Amino acid sequence: MPQDVIERIHLIVGDISDPPAELRVDCIVNAANESLLGGGGVDGAIHRAAGPRLLEHNRTLGGCPTGLAKITPAFDLESAGIRHLIHTVGPVWSGKRDTGVPGAPGDDSASLGNTHEDVLLASCYTQCLSLCVKHAVRCVAFPAISTGVYRFPKQRAAKIAFGHIHGHLARHDTPHRVVICVYSEEDARVYQDVIDTRAAWMLGRRRA
Question: Which of 99, 113, 191, 195 has its CB surrounded by the most CB atoms within 10 Å?
Answer without folding.
Answer: 191
